[in-house]
C-alpha cells in the first residue's frame, strides 16, 4: 500500500490541497472554501477535508486513503494554540502537522535554501530561515503592527486626506480623489474608518501606487514612508545573515521598485507557491514514515 | 421676576452647571455625573438637570425657576445631529442652545478676544475664533485623527515597543518598561491593543513624557514626532490670523516645552474654565431676552 502525503494551504479566502507520493511528486490538486481556523474552525475543517478529497479525486485515488495520509497544513492563525488544538484533534488524516501559512510560503519561495521572505499583502510579516532556525519578524496585526502592509498604507492615506482637508498637510490629486469618494465630507471618512476592517483599509493601497506613478507628491511621501518600514525590517533579516530575499503577497511587485538600493541585489523570484511548499515540507517531515512503510 | 441663565459643561466624566443673573454674574454652581449624549442620552439628561438643580440650590433659588431659565450647554458630540435633537427636545429649560464642549472651553480660555485653543487630552482638536467666525481643525477621533493626542501617543509607544522587540528599531528603558508591563510577551501587547479604547492607549502617554525627561531616546523621538503634528496644526490657525494660542486639556502643560519656538511667544494662559465660558456665552446669547423682560 503506497503512502500518500498531503500539502494543504489554508487561507481566509480559499483552501488548496495537493496529494503527493512519498517523494513529494504531486499526483493531484483540489480546492475549496475559506479555512480560517480562528474565526470559523468548523467550516475550516470542512474545507480542509473538501480540498483534500478533491485532490485525491483528481489523482484517481480512493478517498478512503485519506485516513492513512500524512498531512502538513500551512494555516493562518497557527500561533494561536486553542484554535490549532481544536482543528488538529478533528482532522481525519493519519498524521497532521500544522504550521504557519508563512512557513509554507517560505518553503515554496526559497525551496531548501536559506533566506527570508517578506509577505506584503493586507498584513505584513517577515520570516527568515537559516538551516533549521526559523524566525518571524513583525506581523502583529493591523492595530499596532503590520507596518508597510496594504491595510496600514490605506489607513495612512485616509489620515493624510483628513490632514489635507484641514490644510495641515498639502492636498494632491490623490487626497482629492479620496475625499471625492466620501462626498467630500470628512465625517464620512471618519465613519468608514470607525468600522473598517484591515482589508477595507487595504483596498486603498493600490491607489497610492497608481498615483505615485503619476508623480502625485502625497502618494510619493506615503509610499516612501511605508517602504522605509519594509527596508528597516529587511535590514534585520540581512543583519542576521539572509542573503536571498523574496517578496511575496499582492503588494510585492508594486513595492519592489520603492525599496532601498541596498536590498535590490538580494531579491530573488519565488521558486514556487505556498501549496508546493506545503508538499515539500510534508515530504521532508514524513520521509521517515515512508521509509518505515517501504 | 428675575431672568436666570444657566451655563452647562457636560462631559464624559461629569456634568457641571452654573446659574447666573442676566449679566452673567454666577450665583451658584452644581455638579453631577457623566453627560455623554452619544452613548447614554437619557442619563446625560438626568445629570444635566441634576447639575442645574444643584446650582439653583446653592444659589438659594427655588428649583421651580429652572423652567424659566435660558441655558447654554457645551457638550461633546454636539456635531451629531440626532443626539442633539433628542436631548434638546427633552430639556426642562425655557431655552436651550447646545454648542460644542470645545467652544465653551475657548470662550472660557480666551474670553471675548480672538485666538485659538488646542485641546490636548485623550483626543486633540483645535478651535480658532476671529470675531463671529469659529473654525474647527483636526479632531476626527482616534482611528484616523487626533494626532498629538494622548491616545495616539500611547498607541505610538506600544507600536514602537513591538518594533524594538523585533530589533527593527532600537529599544530603550521606556520600551523595556512597556514590554515588562506585558510580561515581555508581544502577544500580550497585541491582545491589549486589539480591544483597547482611546482612553486606555492614552494612559501610556504620561510615561512618554516622564521618560523623555530622563533623556530616554525613544521617548524623545516619539514626543518630537507627536509635538510636530501639534505644531503643524498650530501653523494653520496662526496662518489664519490667530495671535493668541491657549493650550488646554490634561497634556497641555506637558506638551508646551516640546512645541516649536515660533509658537512659544503666542501662548497665553487660559482666563477661566469651560463652565465659566458657558455662562459667558449664555449671557451674550440671551442678553436680548433679558432686556425684553426688564
TrEMBL record, chains A, B:
Name the Gene Ontology molecular function terms of this record: kinase activity
Top-level lineage group? Bacteria
Q: Which InterPro entries match?
A: ATPase_BadF (IPR002731), ATPase_NBD (IPR043129), Euk-type_GlcNAc_Kinase (IPR052519)
- Domain ATPase BadF/BadG/BcrA/BcrD type as annotated: residue spans: 6-252
Q: Which UniProt keywords apply?
A: Kinase, Transferase
SUPFAM superfamilies found in the cross-reference section: Actin-like ATPase domain (SSF53067)
Q: What is this protein called?
A: N-acetylglucosamine kinase
Which organism does this sequence originate in? Rhizobium herbae
Amino acid at each position: 500500500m503506497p503512502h500518500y502525503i498531503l500539502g494543504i494551504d489554508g487561507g481566509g479566502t480559499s483552501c488548496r490541497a495537493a496529494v503527493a507520493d512519498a517523494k513529494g511528486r504531486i499526483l493531484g490538486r483540489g480546492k475549496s472554501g475559506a479555512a480560517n481556523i480562528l474565526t470559523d474552525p468548523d467550516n475550516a475543517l470542512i474545507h480542509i477535508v473538501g480540498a483534500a478529497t478533491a485532490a485525491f479525486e483528481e489523482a484517481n485515488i480512493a478517498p478512503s486513503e485519506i485516513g492513512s495520509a500524512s498531512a502538513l497544513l500551512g494555516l493562518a492563525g497557527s500561533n494561536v494554540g486553542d484554535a490549532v488544538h481544536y482543528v488538529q484533534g478533528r482532522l481525519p488524516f493519519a498524521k497532521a502537522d500544522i504550521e504557519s501559512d508563512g512557513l509554507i510560503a517560505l518553503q515554496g519561495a526559497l525551496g531548501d535554501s536559506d533566506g527570508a521572505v517578506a509577505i506584503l499583502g493586507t498584513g505584513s510579516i517577515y520570516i527568515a530561515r537559516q538551516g533549521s532556525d526559523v524566525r518571524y519578524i513583525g506581523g502583529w496585526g493591523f492595530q499596532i503592527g503590520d507596518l508597510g502592509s496594504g491595510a496600514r498604507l490605506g489607513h495612512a492615506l485616509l489620515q493624510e486626506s483628513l490632514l489635507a482637508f484641514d490644510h495641515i498637510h498639502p492636498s494632491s490629486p490623490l487626497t482629492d480623489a479620496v475625499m471625492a469618494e466620501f462626498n467630500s465630507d470628512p465625517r464620512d471618512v471618519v465613519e468608514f474608518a470607525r468600522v473598517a476592517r484591515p482589508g477595507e483599509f487595504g483596498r486603498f493601497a493600490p491607489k497610492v501606487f497608481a498615483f505615485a506613478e503619476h508623480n502625485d507628491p502625497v502618494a510619493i511621501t506615503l509610499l516612501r514612508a511605508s517602504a522605509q518600514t519594509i527596508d528597516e525590517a529587511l535590514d534585520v533579516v540581512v543583519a542576521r545573515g539572509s542573503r536571498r530575499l523574496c517578496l511575496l503577497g499582492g503588494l510585492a511587485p508594486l513595492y519592489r521598485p520603492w525599496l532601498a538600493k541596498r536590498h535590490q541585489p538580494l531579491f530573488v523570484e519565488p521558486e514556487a507557491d505556498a501549496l508546493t511548499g506545503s508538499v515539500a515540507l510534508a515530504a521532508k517531515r514524513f520521509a521517515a514514515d515512508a521509509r518505515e512503510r517501504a
